[in-house]
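On clarity, I found the account of how folds are encoded harder to follow than it need be. Since the whole study asks how a given chain folds, the encoding of that fold should be made plain. For illustration, here is how one protein appears when written out as sequence plus structure tokens:

:::
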Amino acid sequence: MSTSSRARANPVVLVLLAVVSVQFGGALAATLLPAVGVVGSVALRLTLATALLWVFVRPRLRGRSAADWGTVGLFAAALTCMNLAFYGSLARLPIGVAVTIEFLGPLALAAALSRRARDGVAVLAALVGVVLISESLTTPWADLDLVGILLAALAGALWAAYIVLSGRTGARFEGLDGIAICMALGAVVTLPLGLLTAGSALWEPEALARGLGIALLSSAIPYSLELLALRHLAAGTFGVLLSLEPAAAALAGLLILGQVLGADQLVGMGLVVLASIAVLGRPRSAEVSAARDAPG
């Protein structure tokens, strides 16, 4: 293989590693939930991720306008609520199911912004996929975890809001200043609540170790890999790779949590992945493609 071929392949490998890292971080989070709960898990993730990020990023705080703070405040609210909703769904659903349902958020946003009829058809196909993966056709309604399904759907809606607010924050803040401030605001809000709900369990060595692992796998590692990759990767290619998130989540659920999905669920996941590739795989604005810090 030539040097130029390897250079083209490397960004793809970096994004694939980032996708896998995020989903294994989500699977690790599922193992933390029984110990410290949803709020405690989110608090640990945001606090430790903020500490890691602020070692390298010293965001400028002075001289910001009220509009700047309003924008980053909304960004922080979307990020924090997105993670709370997603971790709440992880406590009730297999991670592959939760991520697939959640993925409807950015998919629907991209289709709405494209205004293409075929993207609308792709979203309908993805909805069919979600019906299959939720097992709502084969499971009595009384046995369905509707709360878990609704929490995953809410996380998806908040993920779409996060993408839009990410673009607006990026227009007002330099480099990684916006996300650094955003995560710090989320940590300031969730840490007291985490201490209140989880108590001393929040600073047990095992909880801290798992929280650090989540912060690394879900934030620090994928941020770094994608920053390197996106210098040489087209937005459409990035969108295709991002569409593999549900499949990576199913793999993480199988290897880390022993969660096995049925044949219908795998078909449903396949529909969502294919719909996402169709919609996200074309060149588009950075706002639609910048979907990182997905919950997980």
About this structure: The chain has a mean pLDDT of 86. The chain is about 80% helix and 0% strand.
